[in-house]
Amino acid sequence: RNGQDWWRSAVIYQIYPRSFADADGDGIGDLPGIAARLDYVQGLGVDAIWLSPFYVSPQADAGYDVADYCDVDPVFGTLDHFDSLLAEAHRRGLRVIIDLVPNHTSSEHPWFAAARQSAPGSAERARYVFRPGRGPAGELPPNDWISVFGGPAWSRLPGDAEWYLHLFDARQPDLDWRNPEVVEAFDDVLRFWLDRGVDGFRVDVAHGLIKDPALPAWDRPSGEIVDGGARGPMWDQEGVHDIYRRWRSLVGEYGPDRVLVAEAWVAPASRLSRYVRPDEMHQAFNFDFLTVGWSAERVRRSITTTLRENDAVGAPTTWVLSNHDVMRAASRFGLADAVSWPPAAGPGTPPPDGALGLRRARAAAMLMLALPGSAYVYAGEELGLPDHLALPAEARQDPTFHRTGGVEHGRDGCRVPLPWAEDEPAYGFSPSGASWLPQPEEYGALSVDRQLADPQSTVSLYRRCAALRTEFALGLGTVEWQEAADGVVAFTNGAVRVVVNLGDEPVELPAAGHRVTSIPEAISEGRLLPDAAVWQW
Ligand code: TEU
């Protein structure tokens, strides 16, 4: 596990600090809470953790609005807490990747405070994208760009002549990455954390840092997904690659084991693979896999294409089934069409079939963990948690919900604090019983203590598969497709045959010595039931 290129086959566990475990009782998870649960994480058999932002932040976007890149928000702890979490993780053989949010700062970052007080044309404003408005009195935004979170991508400070760009919330002003001062400041941020010993960075909105300098009209075809395919003059511009080449060489100074992971909503796969050319990032999230839904044909195509495009540049493929931005798999796969986009539909969407969703989520996890490359598991997925779909509006905090006036129900449902102990207040999330979002009652029966004691539970399945994945070196293997009925995905990876039934009919299985199934009753009379998966060897 400590060899070079550990990341090529790693299982990486995403921890959302607010929601993982609370040590100090304020109802918000923190770094000491994570440190106290590392035995559990290690027991899952994962290779690394990725921590979502814990930096100083007013929390307008749950920490993706950073006011100080080189310190810990008091809500999460201190730098000392970070250092001891890192040391404890490393002692257990777990690597630690942290989030880097370079596209925008918080509006409370000292740079923005300075820009606010400075005149148009000043060096303080040149770190951001300030422009005069259109219309006789500049009362219209500079162009038609809209924010990923809804509404215009431009706001004006009270009484100000200029507008500033924000691809996300108005409290997340975009930086101007053509400004060398910005570039150099981030070199220091990377070094600050690399010097402390982190194993890498997950780069937020990696496709957005450079905008077409002319800021041309977007002319977005109506109905087009805002950032899913990432077309438009603010996404996937050529200049971003210069930044990643620079970072690759900076990170390389610290040895071959430190990695960069791109969060880039870029399609098609051939375009995304440009982020993982040998002198750029090590990995990019494969959101195609996340958005194909429950269709054997689309799943096969996604696997084939992404493996091919990543092989072409020598990068490992990644597999992502969930994260803190999308509906949890156990709910998503239970939606009527099981299509996972849009990821967080609004109140009008018919509720998912929870039992079906969980069955499919377990099968999908077995599919993902059987594939070569690197797999990302969002904390709570290993418990088969559903989204909290019934959160009351007043509890919801995600700007997506508020900026769309509730048209999108936002991402709070997948961010509800984890249940650790069925019989404790807040299901063991916090010693005080507090929880920043209310937990649904069904989380009790899904709590960690109960699942660890049950060999048939979802967490037991994850642990078993992660161990077998290591034993059979599946992460470094190759996919050989097998002849299969309609609706069925079947392949071998080394000694292991993998069959996933995404169709409506049971399918015949060849006999084999050993097997793991996604649910205990997956196989009946030698046939694999719909919505089930098996590994045989
Ligand atoms: O998300 C980037 C992004 O493009 C998201 O808008 C994503 O497409 C969407 O959430 C899918 O529903 C990153 C972070 O993961 C997200 O939590 C932040 O809100 C966002 O950047 C801004 O920093």
Detailed description of the structure:
With about 525 residues, the chain is α/β, with parallel strands linked by helices. The chain folds into three domains: about 5-105 and about 180-460, TIM Barrel, CATH 3.20.20.80; about 110-165, Oligo-1,6-glucosidase, domain 2; about 480-535, Sandwich (Immunoglobulin-like). The chain has 15 helices and 21 strands. It has helices at about 15-20, 30-35, 40-45, 80-90, 110-115, 180-195, 240-250, 270, 285-290, 295-315, 330, 355-370, 400-405, 450, 460-470; strands at about 10-15, 50, 55, 70, 95-100, 130, 155, 160-165, 200-205, 260, 285, 320, 375-380, 480, 490-495, 495-500, 505-510, 515, 525, 525-530, 535. The strands form five sheets. The protein has an eight-stranded parallel sheet. Strands 14-15-16-21-18 form a five-stranded antiparallel sheet. A hairpin with a 2-residue loop joins β15 (about 490-495) and β16 (about 495-500). α6 (about 180-195) runs parallel beside α7 (about 240-250). The longest helix has 18 residues, at about 295-315. The chain is globular and about 75 Å long. The two termini are about 25 Å apart. The mean pLDDT is about 95. 1-O-alpha-D-glucopyranosyl-D-fructose (TEU) binds near residues 168, 205 and 343. One of its GO terms (molecular function) is hydrolase activity. It comes from Leifsonia williamsii. Belongs to the glycosyl hydrolase 13 family. Keywords: Hydrolase. This is Glycoside hydrolase family 13 protein.
